[in-house]
User: Which sequence fits this backbone?
């Protein structure tokens, strides 16, 4: 996931879009992940998976944030300049997916 977002970081900025990752771990683990992957976006903490459950991608008892492995692993949300969700995906982690996302915005 990080590679595509790093490659497109300036494009998101030029379109006045902000990307947020979502993580159900604690702040320390999330910070380590951001630093290790050199992520160019903020990670929102959802330890109780309330956001994921609301969007139908998480289950409170699952071992993974995205309960169904076929649906992805690393959720992200893109917010536009008006503060609205421009895109939401349980696994926007390939360069091709990010290219398609940007082409549609």
Assistant:
């Amino acid at each position: 996931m990080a590679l595509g977002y790093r490659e497109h970081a300036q494009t998101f900025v030029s379109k006045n879009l902000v990307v947020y990752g979502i993580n159900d771990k604690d702040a320390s683990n999330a910070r380590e992940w951001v630093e290790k992957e050199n992520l160019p976006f903020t990670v929102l903490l959802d330890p109780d998976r309330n956001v994921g459950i609301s969007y139908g991608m998480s289950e409170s008892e699952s071992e993974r944030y995205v309960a169904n492995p076929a649906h992805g692993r690393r959720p992200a949300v893109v917010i536009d300049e008006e503060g609205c969700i421009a895109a939401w995906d349980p696994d926007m982690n390939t360069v091709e997916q990010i290219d398609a996302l940007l082409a549609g915005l």
Summary: The first helix runs from residue 2 to 7. The chain has a mean pLDDT of 83.
